[in-house]
Amino acid sequence: MSPMAISWAIFACAFGGALLGMLLHKFLPAHHLETDSKDVVKLGMALIATMTALVLGLLIASAKSSFDVQRSEFTQMSANIIELDRLLALFGPQTQEARDVLRRIALSLDRNWSAPTSRSEKLDSQQMRAGGVHFYEKIQGLVPRSDFQRAIQGQALQIALDLGRMRSLLLEQAGSSIPSPFLAVVVFWLAIIFTSFGLFAPHNATVVTTLFLCALSVSGAIFLILELDSPFAGLMQISDAPLRNALALLGH
Questions:
Q1: Residue 250 DSSP symbol
Q2: Run of H or E residues at 64
Q3: How many domains does the chain have?
Q4: Could you tell me the maximum CA-CA distance found in the chain, to the nearest angstrom?
């Protein structure tokens, strides 16, 4: 499911719990709604609210850490592309074809970036795979005429291998960093909390509107967490600015 669909499902559970609590209020015997009962429910909800806050904190930390790591890896990829192009320029004019292949690979990735596609389609397209193999063959086929060129060729091959490994690493990190059981438990706890809100709340438009906005806010927060956990798609995807900067420097 998409983050938007999950967020709406969470909103339905939370606000539906509040409405359920209001409905139960009408059918429960009066002694179930007395002050002593309210105090016990408040204590239980305080415990659940504390656990919910802790788990939400863990989810935020996990999503933010995953986002930062993958953004750093993508920035490093862009920096390696610039370094590789400069090394090939130092080797000599015979590397022009290899540099053109490198530029086409970067352009292909940049064109796919704004498209609503998955991470594998952005980073593992047929054009990128074929271009990567062709580029490596071009570097391998260079004939160095001095120790300087031989050293540059070795460095270029190493950076090309690093680019391939980094791309594979980003593809392997395509799964969510947020465990589904954590998310399911949080939704269950939120439904219980909102049910308790509705159980003892007065029945008027102000209360219903407040509970509606609270449920919307909570589901919106989880939506942002899920978006943060999908750094190559959605509203909060990693910026392609490093790649664009690299493209602007290629060939110079």
A1: T
A2: helix 35-91
A3: 1
A4: 95
